[in-house]
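Hello,

I think I submitted the iron/sulfur cluster job twice by accident. Can you confirm which output corresponds to this input? Input:
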Amino acid sequence: QCAAVCPTGAITIKNDTHDVWEAIHDPKKRVVMQIAPAVRVAIGEAFGYEPGENTIGKLIASLRKLGVDAIFDTSVGADLTIMEESAELVETLSEEGRKYPLFTSCCPGWIRFVETKYPHLMKYVSTSKSPMEMFGAVIKEYYKKLDKEEGKETVSVAIMPCTAKKYEASREEFVRNSRPDVDYVLTSEEVIGMFKEIGIRFDRLEPEAYDMPFSIYSGAGVIFGATGGVTEAAVRRVVADKSPKALKDIEFIGTRGMAGTKICELDLGERTVRIGIVSGLGNAEELIKKIESGEEHFDFVEVMACPGGCVAGAGQPFARSTEKRLRAEGLYKNDKALQIKRSENNPIVKNLYDDLLKNREHELLHVHYPGHKADA
Ligand code: SF4
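Support: Only one job matched these inputs. Its output is below.
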């Protein structure tokens, strides 16, 4: 195993490819993978595709060639995150005189930054787990019974755009029943290395589809990979008007684009909600200073540690500003091509709430880091 350094958290993290190969070759193990939204529009660059080209079908086909047992999309987890986080947002909007916004929680680089530099702000960070961890918990729960029947052990692997996700997966808050919900995280670059190691012809493979039962996800989940995507997905959820026109209008409230700081306002009937979107921790710091001094007030703030969001994660093929923009555009294109645009309309999400998650939402979908508020 070799070590890599996380550029966002200055944390030394190991490369997990060796352990994942071992799990794949172990007949007693069921290797289940989830793929983050941002990976689909970047990984193809290593095989001659243009930045932003959605190569998810070829990625799935390539992973099957490796011998992976089941492959799902982290966008399902993102749909769950939106359901939980937007419920928290609605709750915080009713708090009179609240000085601080609800900060998003899906970027571990940002969480680490708050914990170390602004611990007093932890109680304003959403307790909703990241899409990877929500889906990791769902995957482990889903296969529990089958593992027992078949005498197998599910190994949960997440393909992510950054090494900060390895740190997140290793946190004690995500260990349940003595095992982490996500056993290994592979970056896009590590997966590219695995394909090259065994000579997978990524470009020659016919695209394949995800496995059942988690094969449906919304466009809202997919756009999580670009800065502003979480906010746009949450806005789609909280607005009362669910018409196609309203959906189109949301595109133009100011969530999109590669600017490091974006501010938008949303009219929710009785009140106007003020939203800040930042990518890059320097921009986050600037925004925090303005909030603390009273110069700015926000109801909701989305923070992504990487400038541009996960499309530009340090575990992805190298990206300059053009690649970042094209990758983000690729995600919005993917959103356009999907029938389901809103997280609440994903039938898998509905089924999960009616069944596997019933009365266990807080246990499986929320996290309490040190300094976090006590109740979700
Ligand atoms: Fe990882 Fe960067 Fe995305 Fe944060 S913004 S989750 S550090 S890729």
